[in-house]
Amino acid sequence: DTSGRPHLTEREHPPGERINLRRASDLRGSARRLASRVPPR
């Protein structure tokens, strides 16, 4: 049960997890750019 545990701040995350989060946000950003280039149908 994690209700009693404080939420981890970003600096408390392991470096690998931070890289995964950054890569995920990069993928979301590139997907948004691709979507904006293609006209919506």
Biggest sheet: strands, sense, closure?
Answer: none
Strand content: under 5%
Structural class by helix and strand composition:
mainly alpha
What gap, in angstroms, lies between the N and C termini? 44 Å
List low-confidence stretches.
none
Could you report the average pLDDT, rounded to the nearest whole number? 72
Rg result: 16 Å
What is the number of beta strands?
0
The coarse overall form would be elongated
Number of helices: 1
User: Secondary-structure element order, as H and E?
Assistant: H
Protein name: 2706_t:CDS:1
Organism: Paraglomus occultum
Region (Disordered): 1-41
Biased composition (Basic and acidic residues): 7-26
Structure, explained:
Residues 7-26 have a biased composition (Basic and acidic residues). With 41 residues, this protein is an all-alpha fold. 56% of the residues lie in helices and 0% in strands. It is built from one helix and no strands. It has one helix at residues 15-37. The radius of gyration is 16 Å and the shape is elongated. The mean pLDDT is 72.
Q: In terms of topology, how is this protein built?
A:
Layout: H1 15-37
Protein name: 2706_t:CDS:1
Region (Disordered): 1-41
Biased composition (Basic and acidic residues): 7-26
